[in-house]
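dumping this here before i forget
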Amino acid sequence: MCGIAGTIDLTRDVRDLSGLSARMADTLTRRGPDAGGSYEDSHALLVHRRLIVVDPAGGGQPMYSPDGNIILVYNGELYNTEDIRRELCALGHSFQGHSDTEVVLHAYLAWGTAAFAKFNGIYAFALWDKAACRLTLCRDRMGVKPLFYARRGDMLTFGSEIKAIFCHPDIRPQLDEDGLRSLLLLGPARPPESGVFRGIHSVRPGQYVVFDRDGLHYHAYWKLTAAAHPDNLEQTVEHTRWLIEDAAKRQLVSDVPLCTFLSGGLDSSILSMLAARELHARGETLHTFSVDYRDNDKYFTKSIFQPNSDSSYIDGMAEFIGSHHHKILLEQKDLADALLPATDARDLPGMADVDSSLLLFCQAVKEGFTVCQSGECADELFGGYPWYHREEILFEDCFPWSRSTALRQSLLHDGVIRDGEEFVRAHYRCTCQSAPKLDTDSPKEARMREMFVLNLQWFMATLLDRKDRMSMYSGLEVRVPFCDHRIVEYAYNMPWAFKSFEGREKGIVRKAFEHDLPEEIVWRKKSPYPKTFSPVYTQLVADALRQRLNDPESILPQWFRPDALLELMEHPNDLPEPWYGQLMRTPQIFAYLLQIDHWFRTYRVELI
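structure:
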């Protein structure tokens, strides 16, 4: 994985922007600590920072077409590299190395933008055509790899992270009314096309964007389609198994050490089991990693979202697959302190200590490894969350992981947000309406399609953003096999009765691997990424928040009612539902506000 950035200016010489290339590269060094390169001509500046995973000698960037006209900067990994390489060789293409970067470039030379639909992987890249004076930006189907851009007239600047875009002197960190609504009412989620800051946009998953003298043009090279499911139950079980096995195996290719995250849950256990088998066949031992918190065994509290603790399941699974397991234990103070660098990593306030814990976890994993696999996204695709199964939530006309703006607005001063409920509802309804359906869908099947798209475009996107930023902050590449677009397409059209086999969350996945894992793992109740339950952490973030509320330079007292927050500190267990998702409750509200304060100061945000 890597970091990319650049600026295209159709009327000015970008070489006059002294030091821009170096400044952009500096912001992306954590994403690409191993090497770097840049390209400049009168209209284009491209920057690349490299994390070396495949082909150390032959994968340097920027990469040039044989005639020097097309220049590529690429962040990502293709998992069907050799399939495409064989096609290209049959067409007469030759290769200098074995990197996927070179395959992406030659695929574009052979097929133009039609090449993008051939790719299976996680990627974000920029192609500059000197002769045509044309920039093409492309992002993977699920949006695993980030790509942002800002346009000002005849100039467009882009980057893997927003901080790279702010290196351009014409781009300022401004927050308008829509950005404020996103931050305070949707956060840590954000609309799929939004970077929250005014004028900062995200290339949407499955989209490519073309910028040239004719303007800015958007194209979707992939989208979900509704179709009749072709298989019976037995065939569905077998095909689900094959898809997951194939995706996992393809994503084990690496020229550097690879490990897996192992939580003791179904998804990470499947991936760790498959990886352990593959490595064992090579005569190698898989290393697995888990995370927990000091004294969490003393303070763990059951809920419908987190019904049991992970530790015993992790030990049993590591023994079952014969992995060399590493337990990372986080301290409460370190967790609180890491809230601020986690904000820097994301360029926005995020999932509070759910982010900062992952940041610390990835730092520890990076000490011995560069690549790992993680089990994200199975829950969104196969109905793993409680909101798929609780009828009182399923048909509510709202985002199921953030069901009301009432709590959020009750913490704000009057007038900070206008038309907030309408803003949130418009995004929700637009997403629901975009879900492809069949005329033959029952009301429940139609709603399940809406839930699938809601989770894909919003909840899963937030988790993928978290995974990319927290891992790449330490130069760690995290692969997510369940995000393979073939799995997504198959799951979208799978009948709910199959998907929820035997009435269980992810029932079809459990059935597909019931003979490969211990029974207690296969049928274990879903439990999410672990969070801290320690009152020590709650006290740390509450104390820090009190200080900010008394700081005249903080934005928090201008937006939030100190009396409402102090009341929340007095009664921290009174929230009927999480603030966001499954894990963000009262301590995470305090932590999120601390992240807002840090973000506003650090980025010198201007309100407009």
